[in-house]
Design brief:
With about 170 residues, the chain is an alpha/beta fold. It folds into 2 domains: about 50 residues, no CATH class; about 110 residues, Zincin-like. The chain is built from 5 helices and 6 strands; from the N terminus they run βββααβββααα. A hairpin with a 2-residue loop joins strand 2 and strand 3. Helix 2 crosses helix 3 and helix 3 crosses helix 5. The longest helix has 21 residues. The radius of gyration is 18 Å and the shape is elongated. The structure holds zinc ion.
């Protein structure tokens, strides 16, 4: 079960490409463009290589660091849940590699929040939604009506949920 976590990958082969490989993020997926002539093992090798490159780039710009994630959570909590000071002082907010089925989780008892590292490849408004969702669990541990009312203060909540469901569907189909 120690499978390496990576975001959904879509490989596009192009007959016009000879030896160049490129990769970019598109709607929560990583699109890797490879020459049509590549073998399956070359394809796998290059996917690993390009994902590693993206990861390094994100680590460099600080997006994938726990410190930046926590600071972001605190900013969001102050803005959206100002009357709930416990949201602005979570004990920890961390990226984790071992969450395959869930995008985020929260343990209200000890004030800890974890986000799947797969989210680092997704648009920031989607990451903000997952953060606000988990932060709201510090007020309501369940998915009750008051919980969703709180989350709905984020205007892109609905859209972000649809986005994540779309990604999950794509993964299930793959
Ligand atoms: Zn939840």
């Amino acid at each position: 079960m120690a499978r390496k976590v990576h975001p959904p990958v879509e490989v596009r082969r192009s007959p016009r490409r000879r030896s160049t490989v490129s990769a970019y993020e598109e709607q929560g997926r990583v699109v890797v463009m490879i020459p049509d002539a590549f073998s399956k093992s070359e394809e796998r090798e290059w996917i690993d290589h390009m994902l590693e490159r993206l990861r390094r780039r994100q680590a460099r710009d600080g997006r994938a660091s726990d410190t930046a994630l926590k600071a972001r959570a605190v900013r969001l909590a102050k803005r959206y849940y100002p009357e709930h000071p416990q949201c602005a002082s979570p004990v920890s907010v961390r990226w984790v590699d071992n969450q395959h089925r869930r995008w985020g989780s929260c343990t209200p008892d000890d004030g800890t929040i974890r986000l799947s590292r797969r989210l680092t490849m997704m648009p920031s408004w989607v990451i903000d939604y997952v953060l606000l969702h988990e932060l709201a669990h510090l007020v309501h541990p369940d998915h009750s009506r008051p919980f969703w009312d709180l989350v709905a203060r984020y205007s892109k909540a609905e859209r972000a949920r649809g986005y994540l469901e779309g990604v999950a569907d794509t993964e299930a189909a793959a």
